[in-house]
Design brief:
The protein has 309 residues and is of the alpha+beta class. It has a 7-stranded mixed sheet, with helices on both faces. A hairpin with a 6-residue loop joins strand 1 and strand 2. It is globular, with a radius of gyration of 21 Å. 37% of the residues are buried. The structure holds zinc ion (ZN). The site of zinc ion (ZN) has 7 residues, from loops. This is Putative L-ribulose-5-phosphate 4-epimerase. It comes from Sutterella parvirubra YIT 11816.
C-alpha cells in the first residue's frame, strides 16, 4: 500500500468524507473527525491529514486541513488539529494496513457505548468490522493519550469499535471504506437496539460467523482493489425501448422510468449513495461501481432517446 503525497485532491476527499457524515446523519454537531494517511508535500515525512477543530464541515477549505507528522513534531497548517488527533495517530501507527479513520458520536452506537453494550453477532453484517462482535473500548477522557491507547488496543485486530461514554471509530483502506463502515456500525446499532426491545437477542452460531468473516475477507481481497470489475460491465448495445430492464428486473417503459427518476432525484441519489457504500464494504472498487452506474444510466438514456424519435 503506497501512501499518497499530501495534495489538494486528498484534502478535498477528506472534506467530502466529513460532509458525507452529515448527509448520512452519523455526525452530531462538530463532534466527528476524519483522518487519512499522507506524506508531507514539503519533506516527504510520513503522517496524516486530519479535520481541524471547531469548524463546520460545510465551510471547510483544503487549507483548513492539518498535517500531523508521525512520531511528534509541529502540526502543519493554519488551523488547530481535531482534539482527537492523538487517537487517530495511535490507531494509524498500530494499523499500517489501513489508511483512513472516521470518528463519530452517532446516536444509536453511542447509546450502546454509554451502556457499555458491545454489538454481538445478532446480524451477519457485524462481521464487516472484522470479528464476531463490535467491542467497547473502556472509557478514558476525550483528547487524552489514554483514550488514544485504549482505542488503538481495541482496533488492533478489528476495523471498528465503540468508545465507552463517547462514540465510534471505524477504519478503512480508503476514506470511502472507513465512512461506509462507520455508517454500517450505526445501522447495526439501531437494529440491535430494536432487537433488544423484542426480547433476548438471538445470535448467529460462532461457526457460521467464522464462515461469514472469511467470506468478507475473501470479498475484500478481490482484484476489486484495482480496477478489475466485480460488477461486470455490460456490453452496451442499445436495447429496444420496451424491453430494457437493467435496474429492477422489471419491464418498464423508459419514459416513465426517467420521469420517476427525475421527480425523485434526491431519493434516488441517497439510494445510490447507500448502494455505493454497501458495494464498498463488499470490496467493490469505486471504479467498478462507477462503471456499472454509467452503464445503467447509458442504457436509460439510450432507450429514452430511441423512444423520443
Ligand atoms: Zn469524540
Amino acid at each position: 500500500m503506497t501512501t499518497p503525497i499530501d495534495s489538494a485532491a486528498l484534502r478535498a476527499g477528506l472534506i467530502e468524507t466529513a460532509r458525507a457524515m452529515n448527509r448520512r446523519g452519523i455526525n452530531v454537531n462538530k463532534s466527528g473527525n476524519v483522518s487519512v494517511r499522507a506524506l508531507s508535500d514539503e519533506d516527504g515525512r510520513a503522517g496524516f491529514l486530519i479535520t481541524p477543530t471547531g469548524i463546520p464541515y460545510e465551510s471547510l477549505e483544503p487549507d483548513d486541513i492539518v498535517f500531523v507528522p508521525f512520531g511528534g513534531g509541529a502540526h502543519r497548517g493554519r488551523r488547530r488539529a481535531s482534539s482527537e488527533w492523538e487517537m487517530h495517530e495511535r490507531v494509524l501507527a498500530r494499523r499500517p494496513d489501513v489508511s483512513a479513520v472516521v470518528h463519530t458520536h452517532s446516536a444509536y452506537a453511542t447509546a450502546l457505548a454509554c451502556q457499555r453494550l458491545r454489538i454481538p453477532a445478532f446480524h451477519y453484517m457485524v462481521a464487516a468490522a472484522g470479528g464476531d462482535a463490535i467491542e467497547v473500548a473502556p472509557y478514558k477522557t476525550f483528547g487524552t493519550p489514554e483514550l488514544a491507547d485504549a482505542a488503538a488496543a481495541a482496533l488492533a485486530e478489528r476495523n471498528a469499535c465503540l468508545l465507552e461514554h463517547h462514540g465510534v471509530l471505524a477504519l478503512g483502506k480508503t476514506l470511502e471504506k472507513a465512512l461506509a463502515l462507520a455508517a454500517e456500525v450505526e445501522n447495526l446499532a439501531r437494529q440491535y437496539v430494536l432487537v433488544r426491545g423484542l426480547g433476548e437477542p438471538r445470535l448467529i452460531e460462532s461457526d457460521e460467523m467464522r464462515r461469514v468473516i472469511e467470506k468478507f475477507r475473501t470479498y475484500g481481497m478481490q482484484p476489486a482493489e484495482g480496477d478489475a470489475a466485480v460488477i461486470p460491465a455490460k456490453p452496451q448495445e442499445p436495447s429496444p425501448p420496451e424491453r430494457w430492464c437493467t435496474a429492477s428486473g422489471a419491464t418498464v417503459a423508459c419514459t416513465e422510468k426517467v420521469k420517476v427518476l427525475s421527480e425523485n432525484w434526491e431519493e434516488a441519489r441517497s439510494m445510490m449513495t447507500d448502494m455505493f457504500e454497501d458495494a464498498v464494504l463488499l470490496g467493490v472498487s469505486k471504479a467498478s461501481f462507477r462503471q456499472a452506474m454509467h452503464a445503467l444510466v447509458d442504457s436509460l438514456e439510450c432507450a429514452y432517446e430511441e423512444k423520443k424519435e
